[in-house]
Amino acid sequence: DALLKAISQHRPWVIGSADDRVAPSGLFHEVREGVGQGRMELRYQPLLELRTGRISKVEALLRWADSGRRSEESLELAERSGIPDVLPRWVIGEAAGAARWLSDSGFDQTVAINLANGSAVEGIDGLIGLLAAEGLFTHGRLEVEIPESLITEDPINASEMVSELHSLAMTVAIDDFGAGYTSLSAVSGLGVDSLKIDRSFIATMSSIPADEAVVRSTIELCHKIGIEVTALGVADDRTLEMLRSMGCDMAQGSAVCEPVSLEELPTRIADIRRTLV
Description:
8-stranded mixed beta barrel; 12 helices
């Protein structure tokens, strides 16, 4: 319950009990069954390049195909608590196929996937090899987002993960930066390609000067060490313009586009270019 509250409120912490540390075993069973029976899907949320107006990246977000099923927060709880083995492999395979489809259709978007648990990367080299053999892996078109918490909990493993993913021609981003206590110096030592500022700062930066200062300084410091910056949860045009004036590289959120199906994506990308450029 505590984790669900934190997710729904976009907060980095919440008071909970020991019972909140793991997802119910029934949820794991439902997730495994959902993958096997086609009750899961990926929706794709475009990321806007603030300087150029291009959509150069989309994030693949895991959803229940049946909107009447459990909430998306419960699905995130399953991911963060220790993903069932079948789930990350399915997500990677689907996202790789989407990247290939976009490439074959004349689009050049990178597809980002969120692996919320370090164990999800284990054996990924074999999976990528199989996808490549089947023509479903496009070099340089997949990005893996790893949670900031992984850096604080296991920095050595995080560094090894980044190196392995780079060796497989995948870029790496730190997700939800600012929700924990990771320093930018620790991030720079990992060699990641980009960083996504947590939505809790983005949502309040136009009304709380301290949060605006945090966002601005994060962007400036990241650029000094060669890391691209994305703002998460951008919900209005004012915030979009503030981020553009700060030199933020990319924006993601409802002010740009809500997550859509792969089939809808080309149309939405065209719409965004017409309305926001």
